Amino acid sequence: MLKCMFRSKLSILTFSLVIVASIFLPSFQANAQALKTESVNRPAASASLYSIITGESKQEWSFSDIELTYRPNSILALGTVEFTLPSGFSATTKDTVNGRALRTGQILNNGKTVRLPLTIDLLGIAEFKLVLANKTLPAAGKYTFRAENRVLGLGSTFYAESSIEVQKRATPPTQPCHCQ
Q: What does the alpha-carbon distance between residue 91 and residue 67 come to, in Å, rounded to a whole number?
């Protein structure tokens, strides 16, 4: 019963937000078009993505956590947030977003994409923290992560990317001895 009430209130809230967005969205789009034609050198508030290796080691083939913090910086946004992981990294249900374990339905493309299906940001202060837990760092090099908020009616407008640098190992990892 309580679950049913929660779902109905959530659907009413979602419907209300869509109605409000549909009322104000055309004026936001017109203003955005006016800004684009008015001045190319004056950027609007843009999305941001910060990535960091939080484990003890930043060397290739070691285990570490990767923390991605995405801020769409979009007011009155109702849409989908997507993280795209570079080659060498993949998400699993052991990883978390905003402190909660990822569900199987949120992980796509063999772990290369994490999609949060319905996100709401009324004041432009939303933050999405994806923690890739206990990952084996790939070969040394630069790896670029991407995040975007696909807002209903606007398409992919709140895009950001950030890179981490995996360091070369001073000595190669020791191979196990299969001696008899």
A: 12
32, HSE (Cβ side, Cα atoms, 13 Å): 13
Nearest-Å Rg of the Cα atoms of the chain is 20
Q: Is the pTM of this model over 0.85?
A: no
Q: Which of 45, 46, 44, 50 is nearest to 161 (CA)?
A: 50
Give every residue of the chain whose pLDDT is below 70, as ranges.
1-45, 153-157, 172-180
Distance, C-alpha 71 to centroid of its chain: 8
Look at residue 20 in the predicted model and tell me its pLDDT: 46
Residue pair 158/73 in contact by the 8 Å Cβ criterion: yes
User: Six-digit token pair at 140?
Assistant: 């040394």
Q: C-alpha distances in angstroms, 19 versus 11, 76, 80, 91? A: 12, 11, 17, 34
Q: How far apart are CA 56 and CA 79, in angstroms?
A: 35
Whether the Cβ atoms of residue 132 and residue 65 lie closer than 8 Å to each other:
yes
With H, G, I as helix, E, B as strand and everything else as coil, classify residue 66.
strand
pLDDT one-digit tens code per residue, 45-81: 588 999 999 988 899 999 999 999 999 887 777 888 9
| 39 HSE (CA, 13 A, CB side) | 4
Q: Indicate the residue type of 138.
A: P
